[in-house]
Amino acid sequence: MMLRTLLVALLSLAATGALADQMKLAVTTSFHNSGLAEVLLPEIRKDLGLEVQLLVVGTGQAIRLGASGDVDAILVHSRKAEEDFIAAGNGTHRTEIMYNDFVLIGPAADPAGIASASSAADALGRIAAAQAPFVSRGDDSGTHKKEKSLWDAAGVGADARDVAWYKEVGAGMGAALNTASGLNTYILSDRASWLNFGNKGDLALLYAGDPVLFNQYAYLPVNPAKHPHVKSDLAARLETWLTSDRAKALIDGYKLNGETLFTFNAAP
Amino acid sequence: MVNPSILPLTVTDATVRRRGKVLVGPVSLSVSPSGLTIVMGPNGAGKSTLLRLLHGMERVARGTLAWQVPEAQARRRQAFVFQTPIMMRRSALDNVAYPLIVHGTPRKDARARAATWLDRVGLADSATKLATVLSGGERQKLALARALIRDPEILFLDEPCANLDGRATREFEEILTAAHAGGTRVVMATHDIGQARRLAGDVWFVYRGALHETAPADQFFAAPRTREAAAFINGDIVE
Amino acid sequence: MNEILQGLLQAGRLIVTLDSDLIEISLRSLRVTLSAVVIASAIGLPLGCWLAVRRFRWRRFVIATLNALMGLPPVVVGLIVYLFLSRSGPFGVFGLLFTPTAMIIAQVIILTPLIASIAHQAIRELWAEYHDLLISLNTTRFQRIATLLWDGRRALLTAALAGFGRGIGEVGAIMIVGGNIDNATRVLTTAIALETGKGNFALALALGFILIGLAVLVNLGVHSLSRTEVSDRW
Ligand SMILES: Nc1ncnc2c1ncn2[C@@H]1O[C@H](COP(=O)(O)OP(=O)(O)OP(=O)(O)O)[C@@H](O)[C@H]1O
Ligand SMILES: [Mg+2]
User: Fold this and answer.
1) Which chain C positions have a beta carbon within 8 Å of A53's beta carbon?
2) Which sign, positive or negative, has the C-alpha torsion A114, A119, A121, A122?
3) Which of B55, B136, C97, C162 is most buried, most CB within 10 Å of its CB?
């Protein structure tokens, strides 16, 4: 009896999902952690009858997924990697959608004194000078790439970061934040992940606002000339929606703990 | 019988070796189409090995075994009851039906015949019991029924009554005698001299891996030709 | 401590309210792992049995390999399956990556050596017991395997359940080949990983408790089924 009901339930589960159009979109962990996806996806489904399946990965893997044709489009935030992606013929074009910003998190006591820093480079310089523990994503994600470029700008090169206080964890944003919280260290995070993070412990937002910390998200459809099976028509419909006024209202209006996270900046 | 008999079996210089050591042989003998042979000898003499050799379960290192029909056909007409009966993890009924089922008898017929055999060996009440919970005597009777159900032309038994009390031994012997009367050739190893006297038509005395003495039963027990056989019958320790 | 209590409370709340997401991912967990266990058992049980019965030159080597494969890290299996199923891999044309089928394939690869190895251990003992009888009765190799599988079914059930236990709790491989897509390939373990990543320890823990409960339930269910069968027949 129980077995029968279970079987029926399993079969019905197997049957669902074949109804709507489906496409796969690789997005970064930081975008997903913002919670914006949970607002946008149901609206997309309502407006377009399109079910967008999200693969939540680091930028590095998102780019790889697009390059090997395993997804139909990618939504990432690492300009250099995106341009290489287009140049290699993996994507047709790059469309900027919105931006948010990165923030520097650290122990509330702020032993390196970055709260009063004059720029992001200055803040990181102070952390290096104090040799205060710092957790890095270390996973080749957009956030990780951004962090490395910031360190370079602060005059702390790759060699100078090969030290005990600089800890590469090789993990997603959430896992890295968990580590930083556990060890009570500094860390660079996108604002959305930080606000949504449930295990803050003794950590606090210490520095933000430098324009170099802005984080541009772009949408790149995978090139159908290279991967004929990709659903480029669905990817195009999604792009039209993402750059529409409807998306603008939803993105600009999205707030977490009373804070606006994203600024829509797509050219219509 | 429509089928040609598989007997007599002629064994010529057959030898069984394990790790370079000769366990049995070289043995030369002939197994006639009828009769009841008792195999005797001290522990470790090679009785079990000899029976297994005849049954085709030991690799023959040297020498030959010649049945009247090809080896594969001959195997189908033999059965073996082991020194410790092997109980399959099934009901007593399914244990007895198993040899029929693996050789193509429909399940229903096989079970019906198994039931009559269980009845014959006095285990009708235990048909649905798991075979592994049966007592030692019940197990031996079950093994005998399982060996006889395919109506073998020759039946080997390896000390089947070693753990049985007098009554169980008598019941076992009755079934065996009935099978023998029905035309089954019997070759049985035993340590029980009383049993040997009761059943034997002829005796093979095995000593140190060789057939030391073979004789008709009355002659063997009355006047053994070898010193070792005489000592064995007297109950002396045979080195 | 507080977190564990909250996890328990939340688990209770999710179950009592029959949370639809929870039911969906729980059923998907069951579907993926049960399918994988069934397929892996269909391969592993006869394989383990065959290895116990058959003597051949490379037997020891095959058994050693099997035991080594048992310790195969799931992430490695996941990565290899991923590369094979990727659109740019050899089986890309089937479009299986990031589907429940891909997750089942990965789990079959993880579970088969485990199930085969445990089955081999169990059947080897049974074969030692039955050897003389089955040889004496002139059975074919196929009949021997069938007999051992049937008479050893209780031990083999244990092997399958061990496979289920490993499969239902596995996260590394199915995360990679399934992609943890909401409404498509998210299962209990990947949801737990996700919620842990977000720092939602209470929810992650709640899902963990539900996972444990599910595993216990399946085990109890299978055992009670096998016991009714026993009392019927014996
Ligand atoms: N598998 C084996 N490997 C090595 N030696 C063996 C093996 N089987 C039997 N033997 C040896 O062969 C000899 C004969 O053994 P067998 O079992 O035939 O004796 P038996 O006459 O039946 O003795 P018992 O009266 O104790 O049953 C013994 O010395 C025994 O140790
Ligand atoms: Mg013996």
Assistant:
1) 98, 179, 181-184
2) negative
3) C97
